[in-house]
Amino acid sequence: MFVVEIREQVVLVTGSSRGLGAAIAKAFAREGASVVVNYYKSEEKAQKLSEELGRNSVAIRADVRDFNQVASMFEEAKKYFGKPVTTIVNNALIDYVFDPMNRKTPETIEWEDYLKQLEGAVKGALNTIKAGLKDMKKMRFGRIINIGTNLFQNPVVPYHDYTTAKAALIGFTRNMAKELGEYGITVNMVSGGLLKVTDASSATSKEVFDLIEQTTPLKKVTAHEDLADVVLFFASPWARAVTGQNLVVDGGLVMD
């Protein structure tokens, strides 16, 4: 199978202006990849990160739920780098805060809440794959890494809409892996635990983080960089024979 070293890849990280996405973008840049910093609302942070990463990075705005915007982003990236996107990290999270005290319950949650998260997770991933597929098929190479969560295996806090969307994403991941493998395209998922600390987890109390530390075999809360390095693995030649997999990165809290 044809493989491409990370330093030769053009990597699109959706929702990468901050938090986990920014950590993933930095990890790829550290390894010499060309990086597209995608953002939707946080233009200032995205531009600042792109400047930090250097000339091998560009910040491009696109709502992943809108295929036309996504397709334009791929074309802009191809024009900027002079070669197409080889690697997609579907990380974008649509307006979600992990707040255990004020979360939606079965009495208050609505179908629209589920749809919002499904559109961000599954529709967003579908749009990026469709936008990049023609070039990936032509290259006979592609790496697609979807960001999941350990909550659909162990819903310690039942964030119904978010967790359900990520559970759907693993089915999406495996179907795409089956469909695209013959073209040299792998599709995998990395599922982290609660990360300390992102904008999304800022409402999580110290007591919750302390509990995670106490009950996790490694006795630590997962950091952005812990998960980012595993994303690198799936993009690397070392993972050339791995597809359709979900790797949980949470210090051993969930053992599958």
From TrEMBL:
Signal peptide: none annotated. It comes from Caldanaerobacter subterraneus subsp. tengcongensis (strain DSM 15242 / JCM 11007 / NBRC 100824 / MB4) (Thermoanaerobacter tengcongensis). The keyword Lipid metabolism applies. Belongs to the short-chain dehydrogenases/reductases (SDR) family. PANTHER family: 3-OXOACYL-(ACYL-CARRIER-PROTEIN) REDUCTASE (PTHR42879), 3-OXOACYL-[ACYL-CARRIER-PROTEIN] REDUCTASE FABG (PTHR42879:SF2). GO terms for biological process: bile acid metabolic process. One of its GO terms (molecular function) is oxidoreductase activity. Keywords: Lipid metabolism, Oxidoreductase, Steroid metabolism. This is Dehydrogenases with different specificities (Related to short-chain alcohol dehydrogenases). The keyword Nucleotidyltransferase does not apply. InterPro entries: NAD(P)-bd_dom_sf, SDR, SDR_fam. It comes from the Bacteria. Transmembrane segments: none annotated. Pfam families: adh_short_C2 (PF13561).
